[in-house]
Amino acid sequence: MNKKEVNEIKKLFTPQKCAITRICGCYVDGEKNKKTEIKESFLSLPEEEEFKYFSIFKSTLSGTLGKNLINMEFPHEQENSVDGTQSFLLKLRDSELKDDSLISEFYDKVIASYGSLENYYIILIHGAYDIPCQTTDGETLEDASDYVYNFIMCSLCPVKRSKAVLCYNENTNAIENRLQDWIVDNPNHGFLFPAFNERNTDIHSLLYYTKNSETMMIDFIDALLGCYIPMTYKSQQETFKTVVEETLGNECDFNSVMSIHEELRDIVEEAKEKEVEEPVTIDKPIMKKILEHSGVSNEKIKALDATFEDNAPKDTPILATNVATTRAVNIETPDVSIRVKPDKTHLVENRVIDGIPYILIQATDDVTLNGIKVRTLLPDSEERTED
Fold first, then answer.
1. Which end of the chain has fewer CB within 10 Å, C or N?
2. What is the CB neighbour count within 10 angstroms for residue 94?
């Protein structure tokens, strides 16, 4: 799914466009015991509760694609198996969450595989979305629909005690101690099945959500979803770093690496300007172009074939947005760290003075030290003239 498709589904979690037909939930304590369950028509809930659930569902589709929202595909063995994870999820979806035995089995699978030591709330919804037609120029025709997108979505929300605080009681007109409540927080994990690819149903994949890009709950994904697990956000960064370092070898100098990151930022910015919806991936041909434009020698570029094959898995692409430095360039030594805005890297240079390498920063008139504005040193001739 791309960003535009994710946003289209998120719009269903509003009172005006609500496509949710049914909601089920199971509260599980830290010892994996089912404490309580709900089964309701979603539109029968009080309006105040609907709005709170809408917020949770939107959070399950929030974050960055490739980092928090991860497209996952089912392997052939799952699709070809009658007892596979894909088959089970399809049964659950097609039941419209009206089969109590399937729902109970789903809860049991979650509890057995979800490695959480805290209390949590499993929320499962079914939705039916009449997909509006779109004209060739992108205009949506709300009253014209050819397909219905039937889906389920799961949100796994931690349940925590609220803080003990003092509060004002209107009834008694007094400041009193507020009792601690168990609060349902925004989800840590979740998934949408089937995926909504090319604005239609794609039963071969799903969209997985994780609040923390480095905690994807591998056991949960294996047991309940059975999908291919792509590299995490951090793993993609580490893989890219290894490919660059091993390919460039003795050419991995300050200027070359700075140029590579400038090329990456240009790729990301160009995709934004062209409103490219699909995430841009860094494959071997694109990596070669980046190295060429960065002034890397042909000899080192030829070495890319081996290092890329050895380090970058074929079925888990590296996303440009996960390796490009769009917020700040970090330059670090064991003793000093420097953060530079991406569009100001020309103010930093690497030079050798008297045989010693230095990282130099251009100093303007507006320089502060611990918040105190300081006077910068001027060339000798200017200092003497001023004196």
1. C
2. 12
| End position of a domain, from candidates 323, 350, 374 | 323
Burial class (CB in 10 A: 0-12, 13-18, 19+), 300: middle
**Overall average pLDDT of the 201-213 stretch:** 94
Examine the domain organization and report whether 186 and 69 are in the same domain: yes
Q: Residue 383: its pLDDT value, please?
A: 47
202 lies in the same domain as 83:
yes
Helices and strands in the chain, H and E counts? 13, 18
Token pair belonging to 327 = 């917020």
71 close to 78: Cβ distance less than 8 angstroms: no
Place of tokens 């530079």: 340
| Residues ≥6 apart with Cβ < 8 Å to 89 | 152, 193, 206, 225
The number of CA neighbours under 13 Å toward the Cβ of 376 is 10
- Name the DSSP class of 109: H
Confidence of residue 73 (pLDDT cuts 50, 70, 90): very high
Domain match, 117 and 213 both: yes
Contact status, residue 8 vs residue 196, Cβ threshold 8 Å: yes
Statement to judge: residues 237 and 188 lie in one domain: no
Number of domains, the chain: 3
Look at residue 245 in the predicted model and tell me its pLDDT. 92
The share of the chain scoring above pLDDT 70, in percent, equals 94
For residue 289, CA distances in Å to 139, 249, 267, 320 come to: 36, 18, 11, 14
Burial 336-359 (b: 16+ CB within 10 A, else e): eeeebebeebeebeeeeeeeeeee
Compute the mean pLDDT over every residue in the chain, rounded to the nearest whole number. 88
For residue 200, the enclosing domain spans 3-225
Instruction: Judge if 299 and 378 occupy the same domain.
Output: no
Query: Which of 343, 381, 321, 341 minimizes the C-alpha distance to 65?
Result: 321
Dmax over Cα atoms in the chain, in whole Å?
Answer: 89
Residues 59 and 147 in one domain: yes
User: What whole-number distance in Å separates Cα of residue 164 and Cα of residue 179?
Assistant: 7
Q: Cα–Cα distance between 66 and 248 in angstroms, integer?
A: 27
Average pLDDT over residues 156-173: 90
Tokens representing 325 are 């430095």
User: Nearest CA to 126 among 103, 108, 109?
Assistant: 103
pLDDT tens string 89-122 = 999 999 999 999 999 999 999 999 998 889 999 9
- Please give the model's pTM, rounded to 2 decimal places: 0.82
Specify whether the CB–CB gap between 72 and 228 falls below 8 A. yes
